[in-house]
Amino acid sequence: xxxxxxxxxxxxxxxxxxxxxxxxxxxxxxxxxxxxxxxxxxxxxxxxxxxxxxxxxxxxxxxxxxxxxxxxxxxxxxxxxxxxxxxxxxxxxxxxxxxxxxxxxxxxxxxxxxxxxxxxxxxxxxxxxxxxxxxxxxxxxxxxxxxxxxxxxxxxxxxxxxxxxxxxxxxxxxxxxxxxxxxxxxxxxxxxxxxxxxxxxxxxxxxxxxxxxxxxxxxxxxxxxxxxxxxxxxxxxxxxxxxxxxxxxxxxxxxxxxxxxxxxxxxxxxxxxxxxxxxxxxxxxxxxxxxxxxxxxxxxxxxxxxxxxxxxxxxxxxxxxxxxxxxxxxxxxxxxxxxxxxxxxxxxxxxxxxxxxxxxxxxxxxxxxxxxxxxxxxxxxxxxxxxxxxxxxxxxxxxxxxxxxxxxxxxxxxxxxxxxxxxxxxxxxxxxxxxxxxxxxxxxxxxxxxxxxxxxxxxxxxxxxxxxxxxxxxxxxxxxxxxxxxxxxxxxxxxxxxxxxxxxxxxxxxxxxxxxxxxxxxxxxxxxxxxxxxxxxxxxxxxxxxxxxxxxxxxxxxxxxxxxxxxxxxxxxxxxxxxxxxxxxxxxxxxxxxxxxxxxxxxxxxxxxxxxxxxxxxxxxxxxxxxxxxxxxxxxxxxxxxxxxxxxxxxxxxxxxxxxxxxxxxxxxxxxxxxxxxxxxxxxxxxxxxxxxxxxxxxxxxxxxxxxxxxxxxxxxxxxxxxxxxxxxxxxxxxxxxxxxxxxxxxxxxxxxxxxxxxxxxxxxxxxxxxxxxxxxxxxxxxxxxxxxxxxxxxxxxxxxxxxxxxxxxxxxxxxxxxxxxxxxxxxxxxxxxxxxxxxxxxxxxxxxxxxxxxxxxxxxxxxxxxxxxxxxxxxxxxxxxxxxxxxxxxxxxxxxxxxxxxxxxxxxxxxxxxxxxxxxxx
Amino acid sequence: xxxxxxxxxxxxxxxxxxxxxxxxxxxxxxxxxxxxxxxxxxxxxxxxxxxxxxxxxxxxxxxxxxxxxxxxxxxxxxxxxxxxxxxxxxxxxxxxxxxxxxxxxxxxxxxxxxxxxxxxxxxxxxxxxxxxxxxxxxxxxxxxxxxxxxxxxxxxxxxxxxxxxxxxxxxxxxxxxxxxxxxxxxxxxxxxxxxxxxxxxxxxxxxxxxxxxxxxxxxxxxxxxxxxxxxxxxxxxxxxxxxxxxxxxxxxxxxxxxxxxxxxxxxxxxxxxxxxxxxxxxxxxxxxxxxxxxxxxxxxxxxxxxxxxx
Lengths: 923, 310
What we know:
Helix content of chain A is 42%, strand content 1%. Chain A contains 34 helices and 5 strands. The termini of chain A are far apart. Chain B is globular. In chain B, the strands form 7 sheets. A 4-stranded antiparallel beta sheet of chain B has the order 1-27-26-25, with no helix packed on it. Chain B has a 4-stranded antiparallel beta sheet with strand order 2-3-4-5, with no helix packed on it. Chain B has no helices and 27 strands. Chain B has a single domain, classed as Methylamine Dehydrogenase, Chain H. In chain B, 0% of the residues lie in helices and 50% in strands. At the A-B interface, helix 21, strand 5 and helix 22 of A face strand 17 of B. Chain B: It comes from Lentinula aciculospora. Chain B: Pfam families: WD40. Chain B: Belongs to the WD repeat MORG1 family. Chain B: One of its GO terms (cellular component) is catalytic step 2 spliceosome.
């Protein structure tokens, strides 16, 4: 601020020292961007930070062609998961509101943009109104009222020229002119000529060509090719009303060749008529081009030649004056030109009067057939006369299948058979042998009653045999393979509606199934022999068809439980049976009888049920085989196990009947039981059910129906010791070795057991097995047989189960048992046990203890036996040595009963106990 | 039996009404054990679980596409089976309310489904006249066995530890004895709609469509008693034993609950009984242990729990 200004301002009275006075409005340099908006839009952003956004600021990167990766969720439809499920809203009520969907409704902005882009500015398809031209052009027309034009333009839609037309008009083209540069008069004339030649018109020639040639002309407009729509069903090129020759391309009005077409190379005298030789056959330019003949026309005379588009004279004579076109058929339609209406009808209908039906005649086709049959039979009798006629009447197919062989025909015709063709094995036989054979066959075939006969005398079939060629009259019974016949006998019988046929079919099958059978079939009394033969053929075929399927296929089909009995078909025309009055009366009368009959029809079962006599009459008991798995699921033994390997128990006396009151051990095994002193309840069960006698509800489920129970134990043979060693003894031995190291001389007992340990490992099982398995009938067991792992393993497992399940039964023995159990458990889990002596003891002791225990048990048992109930003993013993299936849950309730039985068993108890000990020793 | 005879009349005091089904109820079963819950299945394609004492609906099981005709509860109440118009047996898990298995195979609607004692096998009797026994232990989808002896639709089924008893429209009661391996078929002569054996499996209570309920001796097929008076000619009504098997109870087609003395087959008072349902009573079941409780299910869409007034 200069001092002068300061002074001046001071004079005015402005405080020059104030901030306002010193305000500076000059800006020097580029100001920095405001702090809050520091981001420079043009700033460089690395590629990975760049974001593509559309015009609305949305991140929009989809579509492979717009350089994107994302599709779906962000900007398009639905939710993160995809399409948003929407509840269905019925549009039924507001159907009127619904608009017709346009394609645009389904488009997004991109699509719309595409459409907009692809829209053409110039529509080349606009229709052109060439007649009116542009309205503004006509405005300067003087005789047109401007008001009318204004109104017109307001009311009428402006007629549109296409852009092309508009451009053309601008270039000087006028409607009606051709397109192209202007041409000279000469060219213009030429164009006219060309077009007129095409159209068949002649143009008036302009005279003032001189004047005209001074100007140039617009070219002629190209005629628009108008293609007529074909809306009729005529052939191509045919116009209605065209004559036959027109359609062939012969131009009738063409006067160019009125005379004969003379070949060009030859002259023709004035007096000479055109000869055949002078005619130019090969001239293609004649109008009659189509009428070419593929053969030499000179070979034929005119009369014999028939050609469609014939020569002119023919044509004239046919279609010319003789035929007025007004001729019509009788129904009014016009006769085609070129055709003549025949005076005579083509076909005459000849009507024959119906033959007089004799009074009282009834249609009876059966009679006719039977007549023909008898005729046939007659024909068989005298072949020479009738046969020929008959054969002629038979259609070929039937004749072919009628079964006449060449030989038969030959014999019918009386030919001598060819000598070189022996017919069968019989021809090689001597006459004597043949006779003998015949006799044998005759004696085999015996006639039964009603067509099925067992004969003892040689019958007609064998009598016919000697004729070298058997005729159709011979009853022939086709062979069926015995196996097939046997199978078919078991299978479906195809004639359920016809019992006679069914029976005969069965008989046929039987005769075929068993070669030695004495059943032969004979024709029924009313049956002719061909019929019989065809019947037999039918049987043979049905046998093949209806034999049950074998193998895997059979399992896929099941037979219907009910056979549909179709209605009995009565052949021939239906003639209502004449019912006389008496029969009607009888029908009325028989109402009651019918009722009675219906009651009779009721089976005794139904009768019993009706009168309430339920019981044995209404009860049916049939064997039923439950599936094995079902038995397993119900915890029941299979009642009818498949007969597998013959078990020893089944060799026992089958006649011994079961009596539940008598302990079975006592009656079945006397001496041997004394010897071995072993009776187990299951053994008893074996004895009883081995009989296979009738079951009683009282004894079902008491364990004795379980004849396979313990079978594996009985049949079990002790495997060699090595097996046991392999399975069990390895650990034991190791540990026993260890034990031996540690406690070598410590305990006398232990030493003893160590020696026995090996044996014991096996014996824990063999106790049970070999002891029980020595009833009287069982053969001596051999120890060194290979082990059966199947039987072996389950026994082991079950044993464990058994000990647990019968736990409750051994309450008294609990103390001892518990000890044992602990040890047993210890065996299982000894790996987890603490190291030290407990381990060794645990491992070794069970074995030793087991034996000792056993002995002790037995001793104590023996001593206790008088005091205690033997029930427990038996059960306990059973537990120890008898390995049984785990008790099924359903049978649990029956345990009481079982125990009761055991207590019955106690009556034999004393011997039993003694014997047991001995058995142990025996081992 | 005689001890309770005549002492406890039928529980005829309405305790609660279980309403919720939209349409007829076809079956109502007590749960096993203490039987505090009731499962009902109806024409509305749902199975509902009710508290029998409070009458509250606990759960609705819906997966069936057709009506439910039969329910069977497993011994441990953990699962139950149901069947109906959709030709397959559904095995449900009670807690999750989902089907654990669907066993297709029948050619017609399944009228009855029943577990065996340990729920390892389920048997289904169908309109196609077969009984199919399904294994629930294994994963196989094919039945263990198909019992095809019946000539008409199977209407009822009972399984105890070793026998399967079926009642069919062909008028037979068939007892398949698995232990003996034999089939005893008793001809009743009228379509059998329900067979309920006594606890000792010695007698069978057979309901037939001739308005008779017969007590049949299971051992020889003789009729021991015949209970009549009610009307049952076209619907499946199930008769059952009253408490202690001293009485026979049956709801009939008029909506009345009838009761008879088991031994002399006399109708118990009131005779005739009051009409308690507006439509046919389709199911009558007595509480397995409680002396004075029973349920009736009816086509009027309600299931009623009856108790003695206390």
